[in-house]
Amino acid sequence: MKVTVNRNPYRTLSAAILAAALVLLTTTGTISTATAQESKDASDAPPSSVTHQMYLDMKLGKLNIHGDNAVVEALVLQRNIPITYDYIATLMRTPNAFGNGPACIVCHSSNNPAKSYRGLDLSSCEGILRGVTEEPPRNIITPGNPENSLLVSMIRNNRMPLGVPFFSPVNTDSITAIKDWIDKGAKNDENFNTNILPLFSKEDAFGGDVPCIECHKSFRDPPSFNEVNLSSYEAIMKGAWSKTRGKEGRPGLPIVVPFESADSSLYRRLTSNRMPPGVDPGEDSNHPNTQLLMRWIEQGAWCK
């Protein structure tokens, strides 16, 4: 399968709006390295201003901007500039905001499941905070914790196995077996060793032509994506990034939550397509707009 990353003019939406935001924040100078005059304007800015500090950082080589991701990281994330809901609302209404695809509100504009997929309303802040209303109802964001927010994972994570068709069935015998195993407690028993573990070594178990274990067989990335190891029960229960997080004294991110398949990324990654629908699986999971959405959630997901 050939994976390509599509470029489009909407990808620079974040940089354009950030530039406008900086104009509001810095009224005494202009950030630029394009001309000597613009550089002088920045150097003459008040020492306590964001403009002057940015000028010094660039002059000393502490700030290097190489593209959208670098711009967002340097100008917003590192400086902890507040992200307003107004910007989030713009993202939800903009095609290609998170990768090639329709605007989020095309499919998610009402809390009525008859009018909006999953009864999810992304057209208002209240709707985002309310989350999914279709049974079973679910929150899609956890204020203060973007890594534990369903909205973020749906935008960042590809369905597995990589390249499986969008409309590939989600209720096959293999996927149902994983769901039932988790919902019954995810035990290390005869059922697991006989019926569950072998699925990860089977080429066509979940609709792809490569077994899961091909990309998830150790605690090192590379070769195993996200340090996910599906070679044994103990390895599976260690979760993702266990090696990296272990160095910081933290456990891995769970991929299996016993009794809760809906909260288990192992099951979700087999059944949930990445959003927006049809997005190239090679699209950057750290898209600038995704980073800004995550920062808004981290800052409390305020409706202001």
Helix content: 25-40%
Succession of helices and strands: HHHHHHHHHHHHH
**Beta-strand fraction estimate:** under 5%
The outline comes out as globular
Task: Provide a descriptive summary of the structure in words.
With 304 residues, the chain is an all-alpha fold. The chain has 3 domains: 9-77, no CATH class; 85-157 and 294-298, no CATH class; 173-271, no CATH class. The chain has helices at residues 13-25, 36-43, 50-59, 68-77, 85-93, 125-130, 150-156, 173-183, 190-196, 233-238, 242-246, 265-271, 288-298. The relative contact order is 0.15. Residues 1-40 have low confidence and may be disordered.
Produce a short descriptive summary.
It is built from 13 helices and no strands.
Task: Tell me the layout of helices and strands.
Elements: H1 13-25, H2 36-43, H3 50-59, H4 68-77, H5 85-93, H6 125-130, H7 150-156, H8 173-183, H9 190-196, H10 233-238, H11 242-246, H12 265-271, H13 288-298
Feature tags:
globular; 304 residues; 36% helix; mainly alpha
